[in-house]
Amino acid sequence: MPRTKKTDTETVTAPDAENVKTLLSTLVEYAKEKLYLGKYDAVYALNQLIARFGTDSPAAPLPSIPDLQTGILDPLVEYAVKTGLTTAEEKLLFETEIMGYVTPAPGEVIAHFDALCSTEGAPKATQYLNELAVNSNYVRMADINKNIRWTAALPEGNLTVTINLSKPEKSNAEVARQKLLPQTGYPKCMLCLENLGFHGSLRHPARETIRIIPMYLNDEPWFMQFSPYVYFDEHVIAVSESHHPMQITDETFVRLMDFVEMFPHYFLGSNADLPIVGGSILAHEHYQGGKKVLPMFQRPARKHFASENYKSVAIDTLDWYNSVIRLSGKNRDEIQAAAHDILSAWRNYSDEGQNILAHTDAPHNTVTPIAAAENDTYILYLILRNNRTDEKHPYGIFHPTEDMHNIKKEGIGLIEAMGTFILPGRLQKELSAISEILSCGKLPDYKGLSDPENPLSKHFDMIIQMVSEHGTSLTAEQAHEAIVARVNDTCRRILECTAVFKNTADGQAAFEKFLNSVSVTEA
Fold this sequence. Notes:
The protein has helices at 17-34, 39-53, 68-82, 91-102, 106-120, 122-135, 141-144, 172-180, 250-262, 332-347, 414-417, 427-438, 446-449, 460-470, 476-498, 505-516; strands at residues 148-152, 159-163, 213-217, 220-226, 236-240, 267-269, 286-290, 301-306, 314-318, 324-329, 365-374, 377-386, 420-423, 521-522.
């Protein structure tokens, strides 16, 4: 993995009361310049800040606006901790609160977005909303930029690999305090509309700076927001105003198509609606999208098909790790009809030779759908999924096997199924430690490594194999390259596990047999 430069953590000194006045005025000037805060709202926001900090008047702002985080927010938060306005544990809650004072109100943002859409087009409007999310610190780029990211160049298709360091780790003491807090059930989940302006707690993140854009998808009220955890360019989330579980139906295809009609510069996809193959939030229906930079979009067709039932629709299987059907054409209704027939057939399709059973004690077949639009052509990708388990595969027959859980154990949802891996932050230290083993010049302490208390114990089998292959006398650079190659190969194998029809002659023949069952034949 690419190395990151280590820097000493600087201690922020709390300013005195007079400097706080200056910083509050400077924060408002920042908001006028970067957040489009209007003249009168700026006066209002400054007075709110003066009251919150218990000062009697403002002071002149700094002659030039410093970095938001290090030059304004960090000193203000330290002052708040020092004077008892907040606690050390609630720093982030307080920081979000004061940014909420200077972020334009939701109605103002919606009006500005709509005006840009009508005069300058959807890309300009989404660019504005994205910049607002970043500049208001709702999207905390200072944290996101800590993520370690690289491209795995592989013959079967490049993958993007990210070690996620942007989600702050909680100490045991913080976790213990959270357990003692009352559960109000409001908002019901992290996605609900009621998060708009929510102050937050140690259990629930503050959302004073979130801004949303309402819309109708399939004539139902939805809204769009940017993800605070940016896994790819302009990572957007479309959320139903109604709190109900994820479900893949014909209406899903309509909503996805509605969205890409409004925002053709974005894609939008849905996680599957079943555990194991679904996303981390199944309780609230939502979709994810953004710029079309995910690796799957770069892949060509493996084989071309057609159907007399949808003569205008090009039907392809994709040259990709898992089992993807791509529907494309200018007739949206025919694409949605084809998707309906494929989903209906797949829900009840079994092929014991491929380990596919549609039903046992519960339904197992579903799809991960993704919509896009290019030059007046609609595109709908259907990734076939199955979540069945058995004694040999307790985590899922089409889930990463246990020998890969040291790298990734969680479910493979929409983003990773399309080739962008989000790996746990623990890997930064763990892989660096393994790299040191490969370059230390002596055999490792295998007994110590096998101790369950050792963080490297989960990598025990991998370490044995890598030492056997490479020895322990690699240079630091060679060890680093060996680790990267190992992670890349594991990500490749993980995606191959998710393929319900394997990329073998037998697997692809079985894939074609399924397509034939819905009157789709080779073109």
